[in-house]
Specification:
172 residues, 14-stranded parallel β-sheet, globular, mainly beta, single chain
């Protein structure tokens, strides 16, 4: 698989699509994804670089990793893949976001506005956390599962977790 490294400067392509291989932007001075960031396979390594996705983040597979903060302005859609691999990764979600498939969270995923969880399991692994500061709307008859390590589901004072699951149950 191909590997690309950005070794300096300003990384800001209008649309970024990663289907395999590795895209390493950890040595760039700045990483901004203006329109959309799509990860279907492979590895996006942010390293310790704080990055901003000004559009929509779509992850259907692959891994987004680093010891960094990734701010997502227009929401995200997770239907597979892994967040994390770095001990201090924080993914901050603004806008409307969706979880519609099983994905693994080895990072801190922070919902600051609206998060719909409609299907699939959320696997919190190796220190993974889901922090709700907005509204988390659950219609999934699935589970949030803690794997090895200290996993955490947090709900702030202003956070709301509303469960409207079907005939089954939602397990946390």
């Amino acid at each position: 698989a191909n590997s690309f490294s950005i070794t300096g400067g300003f990384f800001a392509p209008l649309n970024t699509v990663l289907n395999g291989g590795t895209l390493d932007v950890s040595a760039a001075g700045v990483a901004v994804f203006p329109n959309s960031l799509r990860v279907a396979g492979g590895v996006l390594n942010l390293g310790t670089l704080d990055a901003v996705d000004q559009g929509v983040l779509t992850q259907t597979g692959g891994t987004i990793t680093g010891d960094t903060r990734l701010r997502v302005i227009d929401g995200a859609s997770f239907s597979g893949g892994t967040l994390g691999g770095g001990s201090a990764m924080l993914v901050q979600l603004s806008g409307v976001s969706n979880i519609s498939g099983t994905f693994t969270d080895d990072a801190t995923l922070e919902n600051d506005q609206w998060l719909n969880w409609s299907s699939g399991d959320i696997m919190l692994r190796a220190g993974g956390a889901l922090q709700n500061n907005g509204i988390m709307y659950i219609t999934a008859d699935r589970r949030i599962e803690a794997g090895t390590g200290a996993a955490q589901l947090g709900n702030s004072v202003n956070g709301v977790i509303a469960v409207y699951a079907g005939a089954g149950e939602t397990d946390i």
